[in-house]
Design brief:
The complex is a heterodimer. Chain A is mainly alpha-helical. Chain A contains twelve helices and two strands; from the N terminus they run αααββααααααααα. Chain B folds into two domains: 225 residues, Rossmann fold, CATH 3.40.50; 76 residues, Alpha-Beta Plaits, CATH 3.30.70. Classes of the chains: A mainly alpha, B alpha/beta. Chains A and B meet through helix 1, helix 2, helix 5 and helix 6 of A and strand 5, helix 2, helix 3 and helix 5 of B.
Chain lengths: 274, 326
């Protein structure tokens, strides 16, 4: 093929000269902008998605509080313990949806149009995961600020690191969801079935809604193999004001590992489907 | 613009190996308009998707717009336009936003993208629809938006996969009018797939007939019809005072030698029907009429049915494209 390459004159170079990294940042941003436009153009969904965690916190928090005689879990107030869990939950539900949003565009042809462009394949994954993650940053700050008058101690730097860990984890989970979406092309129910039956065990086995200490031993053992456990623990530590701690380091590591595996599977799937 | 050698794609479905495309060679020169014609599942779209770098070939290679599709897919994608079978615009997006998004995907500077989007919307009769959602457009409008989105990067080579399928005849004609004008204005080479015979016949300057994943013929529509199918001339001869046998004998004596097939038929009202198969029907009729008159045979009626691409496909494969496409 090398011989024939020279026989055809390439048309004028349409892509600007730049480094791979610069192209990747540009591409990821381009995908992110497209995805976020739907949310920005429709403020109603934006408002509801912001209110949702507040409602959840307002309804579930007091129940948890009432259940606990002493009013504390692992030495923390119920609010301080529960709020990071809610954040992780929103992150998971949000980024877990990436593949679901893709299903529709796979069907109509919009996804194929995106593949036909010179966009970096990993940018397509990361840009979409970031779109699901961006509202989370706003949601997180909002519920944290709202919770302050109710006795939440607020550590801005810690919360930012917590969001970063969630972001890295979210990109990995988003990519996995994306790969699942591609695998269930034209069989939507497969995506929703698998997604639903994975998310709840993952959530419960991470001690996100209720403390695992109250559960049987086998659950505690299984939870050690759930990357989400380390994320949840790290978030709790950070929200409680601990930063230089192995719990946080493990959380970061779990996030990076999930991100690496997710991107690897996702890119592999993007390259071999369609 | 396109140089493909031995392009092959096999799929494995449920442990069964399906050869969708088998060793296709194809050269498309600058400025050509080539149509892939064949029944559903013949491998047209699969070939197109390999040429547009959307599908990795199992074997073989292709250089498109100067770059190898496997080694430099992004360079290929940046230089070509691709209009797939589906709709390019996300249904919940605004028309204007989607065009800008395309511009960003191709790294087109924002001001250039804005200008180009405006020009394309105007050229495709979509002006004023920037703020409408894709979902709210009619089928024809949506298809025209697909074309606009495929042209945002100003490609020199455009691929269209069944561009008019699902549109009503009016919208089909309208879309073609737009595509053909844009082709001239932008000096584009075009490669399209279709299973509409009339479309291929009237639009394409060159037809690549595909069946079961292989190219079975590749020529201009006129050439294909001349080489692989016959025009059929039917003459109604009036016997008058002669017997039918005498009339036929006289007629046969003056027929040119290059007629490939002659059939005779006696019709109830006494006329004799003479059916001639030839590759140049319209040119044949006047001299034959004159010759028959000279030997005293009266011709009561004459009919010419020119060869169609369906005849070509039927003669090459034994199957009718018309039935399969329905």
């Amino acid at each position: 093929m090398t011989a024939t390459t020279d026989t055809l004159t390439p048309t004028t170079s349409p892509l600007p000269e730049r480094t791979r990294a610069a192209k990747w940042v540009h591409d990821t941003n381009a995908v992110f902008v497209r995805e976020i436009l739907v949310t920005l153009r429709d403020p109603f969904t934006l408002i509801f998605s912001l209110l949702q965690p507040l409602v959840f916190l307002g309804l579930f928090g007091p129940l948890l509080d009432g259940m606990l005689g002493s009013g504390t879990i692992e030495g923390e107030s119920a609010l301080q313990w529960f709020l990071p869990g809610v954040l992780v939950m929103i992150a998971i539900f949000g980024t877990g949806m990436v593949g679901g949003n893709l299903l529709y565009e796979l069907m109509t042809g919009a996804y194929e149009r995106i593949l036909a462009t010179p966009l970096d394949r990993s940018s397509i994954l990361v840009g979409r995961a970031l779109k699901e993650f961006a509202p989370l940053v706003v949601q997180a700050l909002l519920i944290t600020v709202v919770a302050i008058p109710f006795g939440l101690s607020f550590y801005p730097a810690h919360v930012l690191l917590g969001l970063l860990i969630l972001g890295v984890f979210g990109i990995g989970l988003g990519s996995l969801s994306y790969a699942l979406g591609l695998a269930s092309k034209n069989r939507e129910w497969v995506f929703w079935g698998v997604q639903q039956s994975l998310i709840f065990p993952l959530l419960l086995l991470a001690g996100m809604m209720l403390p695992l200490e109250a559960g049987p031993e086998w659950m505690q053992v299984v939870s050690k193999f759930n990357p989400l456990t380390y994320i949840v623990d790290a978030e709790r530590a950070l929200f409680a004001g601990t930063m230089w701690d192995s719990t946080v380091a493990w959380g970061l590591l779990a996030a990076i590992a999930t991100c690496a595996v997710g991107l690897w599977v996702g890119i592999w799937k993007v390259k071999r489907t369609i | 613009m396109v140089e493909a050698r031995g392009l092959t794609k096999t799929f494995t479905r449920k442990k069964e190996v399906v050869e969708a495309v088998k060793e296709v060679d194809l050269d498309v020169a600058d400025g050509e308009l080539v149509a892939f014609l064949g029944p559903n599942g013949a491998g047209k779209s699969t070939t197109l998707r390999m040429l547009t770098s959307l599908l990795r070939p199992t074997a073989g290679s292709a250089v498109v717009a100067g770059y190898d599709v496997v080694r430099h897919p992004a360079e290929v994608r940046a230089r070509i336009g691709y209009i797939g079978q589906g709709n390019a615009g996300g249904y919940s997006y605004r028309v204007g936003d989607e065009l800008q998004n395309q511009g960003r995907f191709y790294s087109v500077p924002a001001d250039v993208a804005r200008r180009r989007a405006g020009e394309l919307l105007e050229a495709l009769e979509l002006s004023g629809m920037e703020k409408r959602t894709v979902l709210s457009l009619s089928g024809g409008q949506r298809r025209r938006l697909d074309v606009a989105m495929g042209l945002m990067n100003h490609p020199g080579l455009l691929f269209l996969d069944e561009p008019t399928t699902g549109l009503d005849p009016h919208a089909r004609a309208n879309l073609w009018e737009h595509i053909m004008r844009l082709r001239v204005e932008n000096n584009m080479t075009m490669l399209l797939t279709t299973h509409y015979l009339d479309e291929a016949d009237s639009m394409a300057e060159r037809i690549v007939l595909i069946d079961h994943g292989t190219v079975i013929a590749d020529a201009t529509p006129v050439q294909l019809k001349r080489d692989f199918a016959d025009d059929v001339v039917t003459l109604g001869l009036v016997p008058g005072t002669d017997t039918a046998a005498v009339v036929l004998e006289k007629a046969r004596s003056v027929l040119p030698a290059d007629i490939s097939r002659v059939e005779e038929d006696h019709v109830a009202d006494g006329t004799v029907r003479l059916v001639l198969a030839t590759n140049h029907g319209p040119d044949l009729v006047p001299p034959v009429l004159r010759a028959l008159e000279q030997v005293g045979v009266t011709v009561g009626s004459a009919d010419v049915k020119q060869a169609s691409l369906d005849d070509v496909f039927l003669n090459l494969t034994g199957r009718s494209l018309r039935e399969e496409a329905a």
